[in-house]
Specification:
54 residues, mainly beta, 3-stranded antiparallel beta sheet, two-stranded antiparallel ribbon, globular
Length: 54
């Protein structure tokens, strides 16, 4: 997981460690903020994040 910015908006890029394939988490609103959340399990396939929009 990589956090990036494009046009002042944060994007979350996900990379599969086995295949190297990448995709972005998409959001429906044109203005938003998103950031990583806590995860109590270290070895997991679940990404937790917080998303808010106007």
């Amino acid at each position: 997981m990589v956090y990036e910015r494009e046009n002042a908006l944060r994007r979350i890029r996900i990379r599969d460690r086995k295949s190297g394939a990448e995709h972005y988490v998409t959001f429906p609103e044109p203005v938003y903020t998103a950031f990583g959340g806590g995860n109590p399990e270290y070895d997991t396939d679940t990404l937790r994040y917080t998303y808010t929009s106007w």
